[in-house]
Specification:
By secondary structure, this protein is mainly α. Among the domains are: 105 residues, Ankyrin repeat-containing domain (Serine Threonine Protein Phosphatase 5, Tetratricopeptide repeat, Alpha Horseshoe), CATH 1.25.40.20; 169 residues, Alpha Horseshoe (Serine Threonine Protein Phosphatase 5, Tetratricopeptide repeat), CATH 1.25.40.20; 75 residues, 2-Layer Sandwich (Herpes Virus-1), CATH 3.30.40. It starts with 6 loop residues before the first helix and ends with a helix. Its EC number is 2.3.2.27. Keywords: ANK repeat, Metal-binding, Repeat, Transferase, Ubl conjugation pathway, Zinc, Zinc-finger. Pathway: Protein modification; protein ubiquitination. It catalyses: S-ubiquitinyl-[E2 ubiquitin-conjugating enzyme]-L-cysteine + [acceptor protein]-L-lysine = [E2 ubiquitin-conjugating enzyme]-L-cysteine + N(6)-ubiquitinyl-[acceptor protein]-L-lysine.
Length: 527
Amino acid sequence: MIKRPGVVDSLVYNPAQLDMRFLSIVGNSLGCSASGERLVSAARDGDLQEARELLEYNPRLVRYSTFGVRNSPLHYSAAQGHHEIVTLLLESGVDINLRNYRGQTALMQACQHGHWEVVQILILFKANIHRADYLNGGTALHLAALNGHTRCIRLLLADYVPSIPNAWSILWKKCKMEEGNSEFNESALLQVINKPADGGITALHMAALNGHFETVQLLLDLGASVIEVTVEDGTTIDLIGAGSTPLHYAACGGNAQCCQILIARGASVTAENANGWTPLMVARSWNRDSIIEMLSTPEEIQLPPTPSPYLCLPLMSIIKIARECGWRNSDMLPTSQDPCVVCLEGKCTVASQGCNHEFCTRCALYLCTTNYSSGVAKGPPGSIPCPLCRNGIVSFTKLPGTRPMTKDAARASLSLSFCACSCERPERTLLTTPLCKPPPPSSNRVSPLGSSFRSLSCRKFPSMKLNSGFCMGASDTTPSIIAGSVHQRLRNHLTTRMMSLRRSSSHSEGRKSWFCSLNQYATTSGA
């Protein structure tokens, strides 16, 4: 009975084929890694052209992540504030909620560094704001509050603050919510804004500790609780003690404005934590002499309930319109139609309720995200002033001619696990292209500030032939990158050597002879 060779037997019988498959995997993996590192560098340095060219050739590179920290190009571009590259990566199909080794998403890193333009793009693409990192359980809201990035907080909570005139009054319990108003889910807002990290620390604790008064004011206006206390979890280092309120943390930070507004909003100056310390005792132990008198006589503190200048009511309405109809000024403006009065370029797509002045979606978004003034002539708290008549804008509505965006076809799975992209490509043609394009002679390219890389000239590299199945091609795909002038001769030579090595009796001798043959051929070809 003749035994039919299996998979293991075929590998033993064909040692040269095993070597070729191994080198093909290693070579193509190194090729993916090199292209991925180029995309990471482009994302970190803000090189939009380089990133676009890499993604046009291999869209799967959006899922590349660096070794160790596992930061993707989306993480690097978000941390550096390159919102155009963030948009490019998201449109290329990257997972918007990718995590690095700490469990942080791109939204967390953008909030940590205060890049509100990136936060706006990520919110428009519906990034998850509830994700918590692996180290301390902090969300994007915690990171924004820790560093005092109030604009980022406003964008993070845009889906929870409705565009209704009495939103601020409802939060202050001055009026009841109208029946049938499904936009305002107050319990969901309170749950998000009071979500604790490890140790029971809320966003208000972090903002009060670091003395970010504007952030504290906005959080209080949106319903942050002044009676939330920290807990002892055995992992978080708490120098104040468990059971501490935001006022304890404000006393430790020593900011008088934060202490004043917390006391005015109902924080207790006599509350004791697990160590038996009151906020006054915390201030004394940390030598915060400037607030000791204020904590000793809290009855003298009287602050009028003024809304935060960062409160923006029309933000929810314009974000919904932007998600549905887009926010880029890509349509050609007809000659008979008046352009947007702000940018004088875009097509008017929205109108403000009340004064009915028309704007493009992009400018309306800019007005809502950059507004820092509650001084409007007519309007409820939280409305933004119209740039034309100064009346308060509470919400935006779509114009009748505004059409929704057409949904793109479903993208293929963008996995990078030994990318088998060549198996999905029907073309077998070889594309002759430079390894990297040199800059035009007339352009003077300057490396972005803060970059750890220097601009390198690639003019010395000759033209290369890139196989269409560059990343882990099929079984008959040639390895990685081979110079165009020697590609066919080297392939024929290796095929001949493989056929001869199949008749070799020793596996080790076959492997050795194959490497020697390759080195010998490379030496003679180079000579």
